[in-house]
Amino acid sequence: MTDPTPGKRTELSELGEFGLIRHLTENFTIEQPSTLKGIGDDAAVIDYGDNVILVTTDLLVEGVHFDLAYMPLRHLGYKCAAVNFSDIVAMNGKPRQLFVGLSVSNRFPVEALDEIYEGIRLACKRYHVDLAGGDTTSSVHGLFLSLTVTGEAAKEDVVYRSTAKENDLLCVSGDLGSAYMGLMLLEREKRVFEVDPGMQPDLNGYDYILERQLKPEPRTDILELLKTAGVKPTSMIDISDGLASEVLHICEDSKLGCRIFEDKIPLDAMTVTAAEEFNIQPVTAAMNGGEDYELLFTININDFDKVKNLEGISIIGHMTEPNAGVFLASNNGPLIQIEALGWNHMREQE
Amino acid sequence: MTDPTPGKRTELSELGEFGLIRHLTENFTIEQPSTLKGIGDDAAVIDYGDNVILVTTDLLVEGVHFDLAYMPLRHLGYKCAAVNFSDIVAMNGKPRQLFVGLSVSNRFPVEALDEIYEGIRLACKRYHVDLAGGDTTSSVHGLFLSLTVTGEAAKEDVVYRSTAKENDLLCVSGDLGSAYMGLMLLEREKRVFEVDPGMQPDLNGYDYILERQLKPEPRTDILELLKTAGVKPTSMIDISDGLASEVLHICEDSKLGCRIFEDKIPLDAMTVTAAEEFNIQPVTAAMNGGEDYELLFTININDFDKVKNLEGISIIGHMTEPNAGVFLASNNGPLIQIEALGWNHMREQE
Predict the structure, then answer these.
(1) Which of A149, B7, B22, B181 is the 20 to 30 A CA-CA neighbour of B134?
(2) How far apart are the first and last CA of chain A?
(3) Is the model more confident about B75 or about B196?
(4) In 3-state terms, what secondary structure has residue A74?
(5) What pLDDT score does B62 carry?
(6) Chosen domain end from A157, A192, A209
(7) Residues B152, B175: one domain?
(8) Residue B123: helix, strand or coil by DSSP?
(9) ipTM, 2 dp
């Protein structure tokens, strides 16, 4: 490889993912008046008159983002599409078009790609998204998927990460930590299988957390629910890297602190059972597990009455002034400062 | 890997790139009224009121699409961006926003990515495109780049591949085959270097064809020129895979035949010299070399007078009724049927 700057070598790991993106993009300027929001939210926001177009893109790498040993190809296709739709939903928009880049080595037959595309097709059909383009190329090693989704929203409907206000209530949809426990389970069964290929996987009774890992759904229904209730979130993000990481995004971008109450974090009974089995605190799975693709959002405190009884929405805390910091009030007393560990960190700790 | 359909294995090579895309996408239906054009042109066309948004996406793989042994990283970044801008230009649109997905293994230091992004930044600056998002992840092997570009056009300005008419004149911008000869030269010097790393590359006097390979430019200037002349192309495509492949796209999509005249194909003197050196017919480099990123377009025959004296545009043939086939009238007499060999095929023939 050509060495661009002999004598200087900064390892990628020194910067971390977000640090690297910041570093690489800091010299770019926005010139187009149509670019309402560039880097730094779930999706870009482009002004096209009365409506805006939302654009999000994602690159998924075999061995990094998915493991074909336990991720069926059809589920892989569905999940890749669904999590990108989720980025559009997190802007309070509707996903409309999908673009798929696929790079595979010769070890994959056409039938394998058919399975991936069948999963993508099912997700497109369910969420009324059109496959509108893409690129298919060969690779030297493994499978790469690049997805771009465009979405639509009325200009006044778009919800950013950066617009939470002090005293806003912090809400989350569904339950958290289940996708991570599903992953733990799949990885355990993979290890068992590697030791004894004759073993049958013991996945009975774990349907819910497995489905949460293998087939996440973008919460378009929550947007409908809020709209019907007459509530527009003041800020919103989807939970891909764990509650801790996402809440820090909202706090940093909105320049606020926040307080979350551990006993308010929604956990499914199966998540709790599985966490006990794996000797993990369920709240840790929720805070740092990721891949739940639930919505984390803030609402004005005046909307409390409209939201408090909505099924599938939990109020887990509130926004504070920035100097108050970002804390989790734990069940057993002390305030714990929230740090962004995220999914990668947890993986390294195993 | 999970084998989705035991007992059946179709190799990717059996379908070919276009066949594979057709196969994978044939079960998808378009539901959104905003999807004016999905798969099957240089870019998708999405209806957003008076204007449309154009979206194109590309996946580039180290060892398949580029070789870092002779492609400096800054040029790689510039070229990746430029060729995607070219797809928007080929729809008669203006590129506006860029989204970059980057996947790299640990062998790349941050400084290497800085070079890539500096190249991307230069291309963005030159063509007034905003970097508006992206995704950066680690890979197990090598470097992958996924680019998505959004562009803008007034609805009535968009030019498709499928709208050429019988008797339209076929035109091309710039000259052809030079990027391919630049590639030949770089590959020769790489082989020399591999045999004797002490050798200095002998690239003197080849600046033009090297630049054509390493730093292609989208022909936004040609769109301006045509607009000023009051000519709207009846169909258009950019030349990424070679004149033969692109002309077949226009013919197939417009359901027409065509006749190209070999002596009208624009060739730079340096392309001819280099082709002789490599024992290649210059017209072969033009027809099957690819990566010129010139515009191939058709115009109504009534616009002949407006176009005939425009600098940088050559009229190379005309569209015929479909049964007349797609032929090259060679200098030495016979009509040669044009087949899509394209870049990959030429590589296999080496």
Answers:
(1) B22
(2) 33
(3) B75
(4) helix
(5) 84
(6) A157
(7) no
(8) helix
(9) 0.85
